[in-house]
């Protein structure tokens, strides 16, 4: 019984770390000086040159041209 509790606890901890790792906000800094806070990591489409992200303020999925992105980085939550 104790072994079963240990295994269950390990799986719960692993699931918690997985969810926590995916929910970090990112900052996208544009060439015109704006900072966009995204919910999760933006995705870059190499075929179209667009960066897709979920805007943390509005909750909407938006896109920006890769040429307009100066930098992207994770925020400390």
Concise synopsis of the structure shown:
This protein is of the alpha+beta class and 77 residues long. The protein is 27% helix and 39% strand.
Please describe what this structure looks like:
The protein has 77 residues and is α+β, with helices and mostly antiparallel strands. The chain has one helix at 2-22; strands at residues 25-30, 35-39, 43-45, 50-54, 61-65, 69-74. Strands 2-1-6 form a 3-stranded antiparallel β-sheet, with no helix packed on it. A 3-stranded antiparallel β-sheet has the order 3-4-5, with no helix packed on it. 5% of the residues are buried. The model has no long low-confidence stretch (mean pLDDT 82).
Write the layout of secondary structure elements.
Elements: H1 2-22, E1 25-30, E2 35-39, E3 43-45, E4 50-54, E5 61-65, E6 69-74
Antiparallel strand pairs: 1-2, 1-6, 3-4, 4-5
Strand order of the largest sheet: 2-1-6
**Low-confidence stretches at least 5 residues in length (pLDDT < 50)?**
none
Structural class: alpha+beta
- Chain-averaged pLDDT: 82
The helicity comes to 25-40%
Distance between the termini: 38 Å
Task: Outline the biggest β-sheet.
Answer: 3 strands, antiparallel
The number of strands is 6
What value does the Rg take, in angstroms?
17 Å
**Helical element count?**
1
Note the run of SSEs as H and E.
HEEEEEE
Q: What coarse outline follows from CA principal-axis ratios? A: elongated
């Amino acid at each position: 019984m104790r072994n079963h509790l240990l295994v269950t606890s390990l799986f719960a901890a692993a699931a918690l770390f997985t969810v926590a790792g995916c929910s970090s906000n990112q900052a996208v800094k544009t060439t015109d000086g704006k900072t966009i806070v995204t919910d999760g990591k933006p995705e870059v489409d190499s075929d179209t040159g667009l960066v897709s992200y979920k805007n943390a303020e509005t909750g909407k999925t938006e896109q920006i041209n890769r040429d307009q992105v100066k930098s992207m980085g994770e925020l400390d939550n």
